[in-house]
Amino acid sequence: MSDLEHSDALLDKTCTQMISAMTDAVILVHPDGMVTKVNQATLSLLDCNEEEILYYPVQNILSISQDKQPKLSPDEVMDKQQLDNILSNIEGFMCCKEGKPIPVSLRSSSLKDDSGDLYGFVLVARDLRPTKKLIAEAARAEAERRKREELQQAYNELKQLQEQLIQSEKMASLGQIAAGVAHEINNPISGIMVYLHTLATDLENDRFDRKQALTFLTDSKHELTRCSKIIKSLLDFSRQSHPMLAPVDLGNILDETFSILGHKAKLQDIEVVQHIDPGLPQIQADMDQLKQVFFNLILNAIQAMPKGGRLTIHAVQVDDKEGLTKNPKAVRIDVEDTGCGVAEENIGKLFTPFFTTKEKGEGVGLGLAVAYGIVRRHGGDIRVMSSKGKGTTFSVFLGCEGEREEEDDSGDTQ
What we know:
Helices cover 46% and strands 21% of the residues. It is α+β, with helices and mostly antiparallel strands. Among the domains are: 11-127, 2-Layer Sandwich (Beta-Lactamase), CATH 3.30.450.20; 244-414, Heat Shock Protein 90, CATH 3.30.565.10. Strands 2-1-6-5-4-3 form a six-stranded antiparallel β-sheet. Strands 12-13-11-10-8-14 form a six-stranded mixed β-sheet. Helix 4 crosses helix 6, helix 5 packs across helix 6 (250-267) and helix 7 runs antiparallel to helix 9 (367-377). The longest helix is centred in the middle third of the chain and has 76 residues, at 129-204. It is rod-shaped and about 140 Å long.
């Protein structure tokens, strides 16, 4: 064997080894479409042996369509147009014995001898299933990302609507008590005007009494301070603010909220009993939103007693044995009235938006729904007990982490 022949033999052996080692399927095809050689990757991909592939038409294992092709025997000639289609396409399907056709990418090259005569083709097929799987996973990930963005946008819009609803309910509630507040402020202002008129008359007539003037001015200052406090409470209550959690004192919240409604209870001859445990621990909450909750509950209680009655506001720390909050300890705030009560069939509807048992013009049925939403967002709960004609008790539960500072079982009556 000459050196040239030896070199060609080594080159052929090297090429054969390289083809055998390739992870892509390599198929050598005769110009008439018969398979003359395949590598191990082809056999592994199709799960078959050489006897089932060699010297059979290539259409038995390779197609440009996912539809199954009719199998040809070794002595049948493959359609030249179909062979040209396979060679010219960049994607096709490997037809395994069982299961679905395998999507593959195709690359083909002509094999020619030294004189330029065609003696075959080489086809390289790469399994596209891993690539398609990655593409599908990427598409799912993108769809999930878009879905999360849509959900986040929907959540943000819902949160904004909830804040607007809270603000709208605040303004509606303020509208209901505007006349009472005007009356409450008008009385002291009328008294102050009388004092000032008396002082001016005495000065004009040289009858100035220093002691009486000091009394008038002191009383006027006291009444103006009371008016200022009422107006400040109303402004604080009506102001729109973003939810902000901070340590808050429930006793102060209940006192400030009741200061807005106290005059209305007095005008309706309602006895008010408060027992706010001074040892209550602070809780993490939004002060303005909790004021909204207790404003709605106290206003509902007052409206349930148009002919007088007793309003009891009670706040104490309790063990949360029912898991109403996320903490082992909770603060329970009861707002109890002796009013008309709620029929049993309506108790389950009290926190439903736009449900109301009030007369037309007295409310649109959003107060309790807003209060319930605020309490739930604070990780708490509201319970209600009522009997028709015997009154109603709303109990608000809010989680707390600290222990009460001191025991105090005394109560006071206003």
